[in-house]
């Protein structure tokens, strides 16, 4: 079965398409080719946008590219159902699903190496105009062909094109070109520059090195391969000239590089010298925005770009290393340049003509790149009913979700009466309410719409790793007389600033646990982390989320809990020092019986409860606190992690909290092999407000040893009404032999637009 997606009415219409193909980045050669596209319901082609189907697209270079659908999503935008799919180049899909057997080559050519990893994939080598000498290569067991394609592409410094051949409407061959360089060089310096509407140059010497220690893999004697035997006994290489030019002849800037696939010292030295050329100077990245291209550049094309308004003047010769292309919205086209060469700046008469054309192109692009508003009606659209309903809007500028950047007063709601007149009284009463409107039967028969004023700048709410500061460390030694002391990761922490306390939770596996499946201990400390007392929640889960509420001189804990029949409940219970809490205790207030493990957090200030289900693509539910106290699970708002581009298949979910309408959650594993992140999103519009990717190199959060797990995320308000985020990290111990975790909290100063 096949169908046609077409913008001109010859098949199913589509929108929000974006093909992104890349052949290199600032670290060297890579290859990726992906496609995203959305289609409306109501077409036969819509049924084909799912597992097992392919999308065929002819590029501007004349090649046919085939994409295998790997993800598909159904969504409702107002009254319209749409299906959005993500797809990858068929070559990549085939390679991902083929494991390469282990083998060692003492002198393998590029042809031999690529043919070996492609065997059994169904992918053939097309053009191969590259030799590159021979290399000693070792293919270890357990990795797929795509992994090894990435390795060989980098090692041989080649460029890849993955495509298919078509005959009578069917794919007859799946091919891969392996060449030294894609694209062309026409010699026309102004070839693409007349369509320039935006140019960004980013410079950094943060990762500049003039002395590199070079290491390879582990040999058969389990020893690390170095270059010392072929480099006069030195495990490093230096670049004297670069050190003089970029470091004023000062002490060498030291770094190290590792390629665990190289076991031959000579090959490792050659690779190290190649890498030195990438690290021995400040790096510049350039991004060029284009609009209404008369001639689209092809991948790999040589381009010369000038900008005489930039200081210093920018004149570069570069190559197209990434193309983002959209047929439905060409204003989203983007050209990413790499392999830059600075060229002498000249200003002939045609440069002034170029600048005039660039200005005109920018105006045309701005006119074409209008706002798009999506409406959501989670409570239905029958406004004749005697119940209130919400209308929620999400705003896009091009493909960017800009809802979090818009201040409340910029949302202008309108009510159009059946006779076409505006209800000005209603409109005045609903000024400044933001992007969530609650209405009832009074709007039945009318038209409700929302407009957005211009003037958008940065996000209304934001924070960065630089805004963090050390807060405290959980006491690491047992108080006098304590036995059964817990030294494990602190899963969560809540600050009770008014009374100077912190409540920490840790998984408990001690003697009090008995036959319980999972339990946790709550430790109360002062604001320095010094322990006051503790209690145990036996069979209460592992304590990754909880809420606190102080009522009439008593602290209450909100949490999920497992009963004696292994059924889950949402409960609250009193914090009682030295208490061993078990199901059935009179201090436990059973609020809800739930079918699954719903991690729980309480938003006391705003009167909401947050529940989180799952980890790979966590689902967030927000309920009114009053409903939960009345034993009702009635989510007002829901969102999934994937709504804000969180993908738990590559990220490890940790914990969350709610300060309505903002949900905060953290992710990242204990070894740093996935990103350590903090997400903030608006649960109402499912819009990402900001994200922090912790690098632990900003001087604000200092990691300890080889364990750095971002566990707890919570917040508190100080006596001045200022909100502080609390980010918990479980670090290793300074004593490498000690398995005890160093649990620390960091306080993050979250800013609002206009605040310092």
Describe what you observe in this structure.
This protein is mostly beta strands and 756 residues long. It has eight helices and 48 strands. Helix 1 packs across helix 3 (145-156) and helix 2 (110-118) runs antiparallel to helix 3. It is globular, with a radius of gyration of 30 Å. The model is unreliable at 187-195, 342-356 and 362-370 (pLDDT under 50).
Distance between the termini: 59 Å
| Share of β-strand residues | 35-45%
Q: Averaging pLDDT over every residue, what do you get? A: 82
Q: What is the helical fraction, as a range of percent?
A: 10-25%
Q: Describe the global form.
A: globular
Quaternary organisation of the protein chains: single chain
What radius of gyration results from the CA coordinates? 30 Å
Q: Class by helix and strand content? A: mainly beta
Major sheet details:
10 strands, antiparallel
Count of β-strands: 48
**Low-pLDDT residue spans:** 187-195, 342-356, 362-370
Query: Count of DSSP helices?
Result: 8
Concise synopsis of the structure shown:
The protein is about 10% helix and about 45% strand. The chain is mainly beta and about 750 residues long. α1 (about 90-95) packs across α3 (about 145-155).
Question: Which key phrases capture this entry?
Answer:
756 residues, mainly beta, ten-stranded antiparallel β-sheet, 8 helices
Write the layout of secondary structure elements.
Elements: E1 15-25, E2 28-40, E3 54-58, E4 64-77, E5 80-89, H1 90-96, E6 103-109, H2 110-118, E7 123-128, E8 134-139, H3 145-156, E9 159-167, E10 170-179, E11 196-204, E12 211-218, E13 224-226, E14 236-238, H4 240-247, E15 254-258, H5 265-279, E16 283-290, E17 302-307, E18 314-325, E19 334-342, H6 349-368, E20 371-376, E21 389-397, E22 400-401, E23 411-416, H7 424-429, E24 436-439, E25 447-452, E26 461-462, E27 468-473, E28 490-496, E29 501-508, E30 519-526, E31 531-537, E32 547-551, E33 554-562, E34 568-574, E35 580-581, E36 588-594, E37 599-603, E38 608-613, E39 619-624, H8 625-629, E40 637-640, E41 653-659, E42 662-667, E43 676-682, E44 687-694, E45 708-717, E46 723-731, E47 742-748, E48 751-752
Helix pairs in contact: 1-3, 2-3
